[in-house]
Write a structure and sequence with these properties.
single chain, Chloramphenicol Acetyltransferase, 2 domains, 13 helices, globular
Length: about 475
C-alpha cells in the first residue's frame, strides 16, 4: 500500500457528479494509425514503468488517514484503452467536439483512474490519443512524466515485450485501518521535537501569505465567469510558436508564463467585450498553480503544487501595459511567500485527514465569486516524441473546472510550440471560440510591438486567427 499525500487526497474527495477532476491531453500523430490490439499490447508492456496505473484507491474507514493505493485485482486493459473515430470530415472542430465529450466524462474511481482513447479519422491519415488521468494521481508535471513513459524519443520503434503481472492480494479493511492509524501515529512520541519545527515553519508561512491573498480577494471583480455548471464541457485550443514567445520575452522581459498570462488576458478581454461586460477596470482574478516539486521528486506520480493569485488587467487596452502589470504582480508574488504559504496550508490541513476530506468535498463545490479562472503552465519536452514510431505533432492540455469556475486554461510547451488548452462549461460558455481567438490575438498584438518581427508572421497569424473565429 502507498498512502496519498494531503493534496492527492483532497483531489480525490472533491470529486462529485458535476465536478470531474481529471486532467488530460489531446495528442495528434502522423499516420498511419496503429491497430487497436497493437496499441493495447504496447501500453500494457510499458505499464511496468508506471505501476500506479494498475492500482486503485482504497479509503480508510472514517477517513482516519489519507487513502491508499492498492493493486487493482480486477484490472483489465479494456477498461482503460478504448477505440473510437472522429466524425467526418475529421477537422479541428470535430476533434475538439469529441475531446470535449471524452475528457469531460467522469472516470470510474473504483478502478485505476485513467483512460486512453485511440482516435482515427483525422485528415491525411493522422490519428490522435486522448488521454485522461484523475488529479488525485498526478499534477501537471507528473502528468507529463507519465506521458513520457508511454512515448519514445527515438522514431525507431521496437515493440515492447509484455511482462506477466500478478496483483498483490487486496488488503482487508482491518489492515487498511490498522496501517492508517499506524502511519498517523508513527514516531509521534519519539519525534515530537523534530516535528514541531516544520509545523511551526508551515504555520508562519501560512500566516505570512494570508494578507497577500486577502488583499486580492477584497474586490469580487468579473462575475459572469463564475456560477453554476453542468456535467458537460466544451474544449478547444489556441497555439503559438515558442520562437514568438521568446521574441516577446527578449523585447519586453518577463517569463514564458508572463507572456502566456498576457495572452490569456487578451482572450478574456475579447470575451468580456463580446458579452458587453468589459469596463476599463475589468480584471479576471486568476489562480496560477506553481510547482513545488523538487528535482528528486520528478517521476513520482503525485501532486506537488502550490498557487499564486494574479489579476489579469483585461480593462487595459494597451497590450504592453497588460504584460507589464502581470510581470510586476508575478515578481512581487514570488517574493512574498504566497506560494509557500499555500503549500504550507495544505500540509497543515493534511495533518487532520477527516477534516481535509470534509473540507475538500465542500471547497470545490462552492460557487465562490472571488477567483474567476485558473491558468496553469507546464513545460513539456522541447524535442519531438513518438508513439510506436509515429511522430507526435501536437500536444494540447485539458484542465478541469471546479468551485464555480466556468473556464480554465492549460498551457503546455512541446517541440517548439506552445498550446493553450481551454475548457469551458458547456452551457455557460458557448463563446469559447472567442476566448481562444483572443488568446492568439494577444500574442499577435505583442509581436506587432516588436520592431524586428518578420512581416510574414503577422500575415500568417492574421489569417489563422480569422479561421479560429469561424
Amino acid at each position: 500500500m502507498h498512502r496519498m499525500n494531503a493534496l492527492d487526497a483532497g483531489m480525490f474527495f472533491a470529486e462529485n457528479g458535476t465536478t470531474p477532476l481529471q486532467i488530460g491531453t489531446v495528442s495528434v500523430f502522423e499516420g498511419p494509425a496503429p491497430e487497436y490490439p497493437e496499441l493495447v499490447r504496447e501500453i500494457f508492456a510499458r505499464l511496468r514503468l508506471a505501476p500506479r496505473c494498475r492500482q486503485r484507491v482504497r479509503t480508510v474507514p472514517f477517513n482516519l488517514a489519507h487513502p491508499v493505493w492498492v493493486d487493482d485485482v480486477h484490472f483489465t486493459m479494456e477498461d482503460h484503452v478504448r477505440h473510437t473515430a472522429v466524425a467526418p470530415p475529421g477537422g479541428p472542430a470535430e476533434l475538439h467536439d469529441l475531446a470535449s465529450r471524452l475528457l469531460g466524462r467522469r472516470l470510474d474511481l473504483t478502478r485505476s483512474p485513467w483512460e486512453v482513447w485511440l482516435v482515427e479519422g483525422l485528415p491525411d491519415g493522422r490519428w490522435a490519443l486522448i488521454s485522461k488521468v484523475h488529479h488525485c494521481m498526478v499534477d501537471g508535471i507528473a502528468g507529463i512524466d507519465l506521458l513520457a513513459v508511454l512515448l519514445d524519443t527515438d522514431p525507431d520503434w521496437t515493440p515492447a515485450d509484455p511482462h506477466a503481472w500478478t496483483p498483490a492480494p487486496e488488503p482487508s479493511t482491518r489492515a487498511v485501518l490498522r496501517d492508517g492509524l499506524a502511519d498517523g501515529l508513527k514516531g509521534f512520541a519519539g519525534q515530537a521535537t523534530r516535528l514541531f519545527t516544520p509545523v511551526l515553519r508551515d504555520s508562519v508561512a501560512t500566516a505570512k501569505a494570508v494578507p497577500a491573498y486577502a488583499s486580492r480577494l477584497l474586490n469580487s471583480g468579473t462575475s459572469s465567469l463564475n456560477g453554476p455548471t453542468v456535467v458537460s464541457r466544451r474544449w478547444s485550443r489556441a497555439h503559438a510558436g515558442m520562437d514568438e514567445i521568446d521574441t516577446i520575452r527578449r523585447a519586453f522581459g518577463g517569463s514564458v508564463n508572463d507572456v502566456a498570462l498576457a495572452a490569456a488576458a487578451s482572450g478574456f478581454r475579447d470575451l468580456l467585450a463580446a458579452r458587453g461586460a468589459l469596463t476599463s477596470s475589468s480584471v479576471v482574478r486568476t489562480l496560477v498553480p506553481v510547482s513545488v516539486r523538487s528535482t528528486g521528486e520528478r517521476g513520482e506520480l503525485s501532486n506537488r503544487v502550490s498557487a499564486l493569485l494574479c489579476d489579469l488587467p483585461c480593462g487595459e487596452d494597451d497590450p504592453l501595459r497588460r504584460l507589464q502589470s502581470i510581470r510586476d504582480q508575478m515578481d512581487g508574488l514570488k517574493s512574498s511567500g504566497q506560494a509557500a504559504g499555500a503549500d504550507s496550508f495544505v500540509r497543515l490541513a493534511g495533518g487532520a485527514p477527516g477534516l481535509l476530506a470534509a473540507a475538500a468535498r465542500t471547497a470545490l463545490r462552492l460557487r465562490q465569486p472571488l477567483i474567476h479562472t485558473i491558468v496553469t503552465n507546464v513545460p513539456g519536452p522541447p524535442f519531438p516524441l513518438y508513439s510506436m514510431g509515429r511522430r507526435m505533432l501536437e500536444m494540447d492540455p485539458y484542465i478541469p473546472i471546479a468551485a464555480g469556475l466556468r473556464v480554465s486554461i492549460g498551457v503546455v510547451s512541446y517541440d517548439g510550440g506552445v498550446s493553450f488548452g481551454v475548457t469551458g462549461d458547456h452551457e455557460a460558455v458557448p463563446d469559447l471560440g472567442t476566448l481562444c481567438a483572443g488568446i492568439r490575438d494577444g500574442i499577435d498584438e505583442l509581436l506587432k510591438e516588436v520592431p524586428s518581427v518578420p512581416a510574414h508572421w503577422k500575415e500568417d497569424r492574421t489569417s489563422s486567427t480569422r479561421e479560429e473565429r469561424t
